[in-house]
């Protein structure tokens, strides 16, 4: 049964890939001000494309940080209004020398499109835009009202998303969020994401002297900031990899039998999962690996440094050491409280003679949960079952999608992740890629889910109370 | 009693400082290949100066690394031959933003000459050259035979010094070494250095996965290279700061009562020593602080890094972590064995699933000891007593002077450190400076010690057996 919208999209497949590669060449790293130009270029690209496909009110929404790109089509009266979410910022590309081809020079090899941001999430963002474009081009209308909201700070924890929503609350009002960020948990099996861990982080510095000291002159007499950093970080986990911070998981909702059953239903080869990335399994033995990464909080040091990092040797006693810490939190946890518990632990374990200071600590984002009977879940199940012939299973995400929590908190609406990237695409690491096959799959699925959602009434999106 | 040589030197004081500042402007960092140009410039400067003052056989001595600058004056038959040692390489200047004025733009403030290498050791090297220059200019001859040997790899542990000595053994033959590197232990009190700790180092890497991992996807499932690095480094010392490596000090000669008495004779304010640099005292409580830094071995992490070090956050599980380690060793210790003990400790404490690899491990340099009746010691005592009116006391250096050990081992000759820098000049750290008053003091003392040494016969320099 031919679908003219999908036919139109598949005929434009190569042109869409070419456009995507143009966007991928723009180094839109939000974490580092050195990439301001790449951020500008990506915004301009998206403003132009939204205008070209017939969006109205195309503009930047400024909340004091990186502005979001907005555009809407609101000519389906009585139908639900969907905020279609994507983001144009990407993770920093380092370490650069670990990339086979440069991060901002997209390259297709073995059916994979390699580039920073290909999988997270410029690829799926383009799919969403092109699906709406095709519906408008072929049918002249869209089955739902659409508001594109393409964020520029997802990779830095959406620091000004609340400010943007506060300032443009009326413009952004919607019945639900359809997100291009995150989605497939398996290449073989259709899955619907019904939740995600939350996240928060902190950065701290230790100081043991007013400056670096000569190890010949002071070696054996004073504290070394790197020894202190090592000793302090070593207290954060026990030997089995359990987080050893007092109160770290005290507000976490205990894992239920139903959750354990859901996890068990998802085929997951623990050994293969870690072997594939050259790692060894490690973590709390009271939980299976998949339970640990989807249902339990965790703590990781993301960066640690101090002293001389250059070529050769330098016999100093470093006076300063730094660490970046991130936590993932689960249902029930206040991400600010969790990070405060970590900070309190660090203070408690920091010896006299060592100065401990923290960078700004943010509120982070809590975990999120989508009810099984929600129209977003039901629409996704129907589309994925039609696409694959198999009944989708419910999964939760180990990664954090702060926007899901923020849209819920600020606008009371739920978010469905409907991106087409896969878990084995190294999204925050070198050689990130997006599978070419996922592009075609996304181009078939997005018009379908917009149509399914158009069958619901706006009222169906409201939570049952 | 006027001395025409000293008068000549003091009349040239400002010109000598100007020349020294020219040399300090040359960024001769031997540890980092990026500074090759600065190394070249410093060599050319010294070759020109040695030629200008009347040295013969002026040339570079190549041992496969950074060549040494050489020049001799051998027209004092029957008199001792002194190898006059200095070095033209300097420590890396980072962290650059901690310098009040840039490291390679010398600036005089409050009677101090600030620049990387001012104290360690271009200042004292220039004093030695100018003292010989003045003796030749004023008296037409020198009281001893002089061979300048100005090294280019002191700050990287003199990796090719043995090769240079092996290749130029006849050219370098001498009765003793008079070194411009190291000397004064106190500004108030005359001291003669009779020994120094040795040193060695190693660098290692931990790997926990084939690449950095997304902490949302793998957090709680795998090892984190930074957690492993912290845990491993935390095993190297106990809570009191004692080195906890098995066998670390097993070959160290025990501290004798005589050594404890020598240390006690040197006025040393432990609290002031560490307070001055904003540090807290820390280390083996069985020894006084000055015993710890001159008579006991120690171990320091000089650099440690891994993961994301840039601006903002990056939620990765780092796959790789690095550390640079240095040790200081005392009499009786084989510096290679000590580092091997550290490597064995790291291997023993490294858990399964973590790959541990070492960089090249060198032989290091052992501690050195100069006999009290040696002509170099007696000459220094006489000169310093005449200069200060006080009897010099014997001290040992906590820092390492690899060349002292290497000259002893390869040529059987002893080295006296006769530099004029002071312990409070931050030589391996930002804002290194050399006191202006030390320049005048050095310009008076160097002609005097060369004359004193000229009163000995070459045979007096041979060790009593």
TrEMBL record, chains A, B:
Residues in coiled coil: none
Residues annotated as domain Peptidase M20 dimerisation: 199-352
Record-level Gene Ontology MF annotations: metal ion binding; peptidase activity
One example of a Gene Ontology biological process annotation: proteolysis
Alphabetized UniProt keyword annotations: Hydrolase, Metal-binding, Protease
Domain of life: Bacteria
PANTHER family associated with the record: BETA-ALA-HIS DIPEPTIDASE (PTHR43270), SUCCINYL-DIAMINOPIMELATE DESUCCINYLASE (PTHR43270:SF12)
Protein name as annotated: Peptidase M20
């Amino acid at each position: 049964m031919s679908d003219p919208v999908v036919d139109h999209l598949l005929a434009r497949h190569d042109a869409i890939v070419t456009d995507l590669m143009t966007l991928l060449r723009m180094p839109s790293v939000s974490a580092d001000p050195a990439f301001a130009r790449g951020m500008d270029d990506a915004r301009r690209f998206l403003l132009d494309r939204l205008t070209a496909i017939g969006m109205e009110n195309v503009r930047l929404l400024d909340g004091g940080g990186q502005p979001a790109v907005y555009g809407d089509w609101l000519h389906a009266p009585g139908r639900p209004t969907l905020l279609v979410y994507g983001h144009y910022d990407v993770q920093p590309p380092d370490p650069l020398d670990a990339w086979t081809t440069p991060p901002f020079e997209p390259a297709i090899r073995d059916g994979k499109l390699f580039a920073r941001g290909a999988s997270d999430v410029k690829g799926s963002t383009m799919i969403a835009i092109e699906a709406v474009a095709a519906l408008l081009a072929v049918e002249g209308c869209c089955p739902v009202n659409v508001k594109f909201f393409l964020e520029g700070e997802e990779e830095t924890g959406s620091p000004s998303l609340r400010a943007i929503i506060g300032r443009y609350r009326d413009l952004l009002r919607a019945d639900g969020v359809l997100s291009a960020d995150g989605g497939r948990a398996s290449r073989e099996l259709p899955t619907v994401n019904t939740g995600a861990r939350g996240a928060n982080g902190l950065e701290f510095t230790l100081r043991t002297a007013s400056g670096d000291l000569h190890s010949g002159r002071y070696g054996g007499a004073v504290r070394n900031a790197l020894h202190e950093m090592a000793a302090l970080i070593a207290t954060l986990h026990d030997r089995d990899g359990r987080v050893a911070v007092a109160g770290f998981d005290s507000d976490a909702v205990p894992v239920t039998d139903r959750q354990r059953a859901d996890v068990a239903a998802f085929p997951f080869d623990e050994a293969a999962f870690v072997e594939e990335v050259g790692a060894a399994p490690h973590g709390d033995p009271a939980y299976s690996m998949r339970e640990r990464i989807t249902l339990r909080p965790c703590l990781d040091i993301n960066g640690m440094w101090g002293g001389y990092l250059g070529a050769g040797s330098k016999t100093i006693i470093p006076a300063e050491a730094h660490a970046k810490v991130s936590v993932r939190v689960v249902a029930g946890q206040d991400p600010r409280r969790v990070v405060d518990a970590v900070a309190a632990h660090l203070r408690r374990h920091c010896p006299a003679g060592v100065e401990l200071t923290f960078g700004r600590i943010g509120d982070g984002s809590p975990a999120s949960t989508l009810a099984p009977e929600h129209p977003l879940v039901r629409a996704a199940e129907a589309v994925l079952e039609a696409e694959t012939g198999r009944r989708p299973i419910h999964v939760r995400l180990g990664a954090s999608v702060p926007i899901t929590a923020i849209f819920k908190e600020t606008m009371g609406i739920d978010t469905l992740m409907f991106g087409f990237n896969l878990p084995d695409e190294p999204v925050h690491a070198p050689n990130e890629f997006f599978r070419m096959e996922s592009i075609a799959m996304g181009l078939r699925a997005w018009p379908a889910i917009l149509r399914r959602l158009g069958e619901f009434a706006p009222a169906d999106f409201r939570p049952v109370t």
